[in-house]
């Protein structure tokens, strides 16, 4: 009978241990979740914030009036008379990728028909504002675009470059 009792005791003990480890396990998970959600507060919401700097090429290689797609950074380099502007290729309506239409000399969104000039200014369709642009500079004659810095604007101001 004693052997039976101790067997039952062992079983109860291991059940208790199991319950305890379950409890600690879920407490651990809870703590981990809380820690992660705390971290998320400091995490940049905009994943684009992790973008990098892209050296596009020599400014001299971009003739005035040209619009060049830079697939790697999801933007266009639009060469204007007074410089250039790096335009993020997402439509400001609902985010479709907007192609540059050489035949129309416009960015024309295939989703709902928004149209943008080479400066990014919206001129037709449901787009609420111009194409967003990326911070860019010229370093040693090379166009350098910071894909982590995407800026919205209400309208294109003539002469505005990034
Ligand atoms: Fe471009 Fe709607 S997503 S017009």
Q: Any chance you could write out the topology, listing elements then pairs?
A:
Blueprint: H1 2-42, E1 53-58, E2 67-70, E3 75-80, E4 83-88, E5 100-101, E6 106-108, E7 115-116, E8 122-124, E9 133-139, E10 142-151
Antiparallel strand pairs: 1-10, 2-3, 3-4, 4-9, 5-6, 6-7, 7-8, 9-10
This protein binds FE2/S2 (inorganic) cluster.
Residues 91, 93-96, 109, 111-114, 125-127 line the site of FE2/S2 (inorganic) cluster.
In a few lines, what is going on in this structure?
The protein is α+β, with helices and mostly antiparallel strands. The protein is 25% helix and 30% strand. The strands form two sheets. Strands 1-10-9-4-3-2 form a six-stranded antiparallel β-sheet, with no helix packed on it.
Structural descriptors:
single chain; about 160 residues; alpha+beta; four-stranded antiparallel β-sheet; 1 helix; 10 strands; about 25% helix; about 30% strand; elongated; binds FE2/S2 (inorganic) cluster
